[in-house]
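[recover] target loaded
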């Protein structure tokens, strides 16, 4: 498995979250979601969600499978010019994101687990002002740990 294998599932789930929020009149527009390889130069619609990674770790050994763990983030930029306007949209969004992703712990069997980071790390940050391109928008960040399934391969012993 790789980021390219499971991130489209995250994109689909996040689009479902924004669609549900719009249907419930919690946001003023349907919104857009971009995967790691689609980020636009500027944000043309709000809300907009961007899926990407902040880094990660790997482990492997002579007789152990390769395990990858990604520190993945979903940056969500919301309509509104003030934190008060952002807060009104962010609070219901927190619950919607939690429910959607808690019900998809393996992203459709694409990963071993997809979970929030353990405290003291924050699962979500914001709302606050987030920069993107040359603009600043009200937004929030959702953080997840993604552990990919073990991949067997042969590690060559060094000379």
């Amino acid at each position: 498995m790789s980021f390219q294998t499971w991130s489209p599932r995250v994109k689909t789930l996040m689009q479902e979250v924004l669609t549900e929020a719009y249907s419930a009149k919690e946001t003023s527009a349907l919104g857009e979601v971009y995967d790691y390889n689609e980020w636009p130069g500027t944000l043309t619609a709000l809300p907009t969600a961007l899926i990407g990674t902040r880094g990660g770790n790997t482990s492997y050994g002579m007789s152990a499978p390769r395990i990858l763990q990604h520190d993945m983030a979903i940056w969500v930029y919301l309509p509104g010019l003030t934190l008060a306007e952002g807060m009104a949209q962010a609070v219901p969004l927190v619950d919607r994101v939690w429910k959607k992703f808690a019900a998809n712990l393996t992203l459709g069997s694409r990963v071993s687990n997809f979970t929030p980071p353990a405290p003291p790390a924050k699962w979500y940050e914001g709302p606050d002002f987030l920069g993107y391109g040359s603009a600043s928008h009200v937004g929030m960040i959702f953080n997840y740990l993604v552990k990919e399934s073990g991949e067997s391969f042969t590690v060559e012993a060094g000379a």
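[recover] notes: The CA atoms of residues 14 and 41 lie 20 Å apart.
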